Amino acid sequence: MDMTPAKATLTREDWSAAALAALERHGLAAVAVEPIAKSLGATKGSFYWHFAGRDDLIAAALDQWERRDTDGVIATVDHAAEGADRLRLLLRLVLQAVVGAPGAGSIELALQPHADHPMVAPVLARVTERRMSTLESLFTDQGLSRSDARDRARLTYAAYLGHAQLAHATPGQLPKGKAYAAYVDRIVETLTP
């Protein structure tokens, strides 16, 4: 009797997550069937069970990223906090995640050079608009005019992208441990009314 544990069946989500990891490390060109199959210990047949081709995998990976890093974060904030605390929680979550969660922020950085790619461009535009709209709404809730809220949303989103770049390219520039938590608190204080 064979006592080897059965290999778990890979799901479409498993393949999408592996594609996101490859994209994060090496860019869009790294989203290729054979290397991802090898990283998962799977065959190309398993891939084709779930996807029609590479473009289908890229679309699924981008969808997973959007759901996790935009829809999921916004839902967490909407359900966990009220009033001014929603804005502060959002900022803390995304700034802490940039240094604490694999893929946080760095997927955006990996996608930026491909902002004109026909599959990436609409997703980046949609994600950016959703995030900007959420920030604008949170700032409006704090009493800012729509125009001021939009300007503050732009500044906040630019600060997030810059923070992600700094964390990715020169992580030694950021404080560590409790000092990082205090640093995030200072950013939140600076950006919120």
Question: Overview of this structure, please?
Answer:
This protein is mostly helical and 193 residues long. It has a domain at 62-191: Tetracycline Repressor, domain 2. It has helices at residues 12-26, 33-40, 44-50, 54-80, 84-100, 106-111, 120-141, 146-169, 177-191. Helix 1 (12-26) crosses helix 2 and helix 5 runs antiparallel to helix 9 (177-191). The N and C termini lie far apart (68 Å). The model is unreliable at 1-6 (pLDDT under 50).
Secondary structure: number of strands: 0
Number of helices: 9
The CATH top-level class label of the domain at 62-191: Mainly Alpha
Helix content: over 70%
**Strand count, sense and closure of the main sheet?**
none
Return the structural class: mainly alpha
Strand and helix order: HHHHHHHHH
* Poorly predicted parts: 1-6
Beta fraction: under 5%
Average pLDDT level: 89
Output the CATH topology of the domain at 62-191.
Answer: Tetracycline Repressor, domain 2
Radius of gyration: 19 Å
Cα distance, first to last residue?
Answer: 68 Å
Overall body shape: elongated
Described by its quaternary structure, the protein is single chain
CATH architecture of the domain at 62-191: Orthogonal Bundle
Quick overview:
The chain has 193 residues and is mostly helical.
Strand-helix topology:
Elements: H1 12-26, H2 33-40, H3 44-50, H4 54-80, H5 84-100, H6 106-111, H7 120-141, H8 146-169, H9 177-191
Helix pairs in contact: 1-2, 1-4, 4-5, 4-7, 5-8, 5-9, 7-8
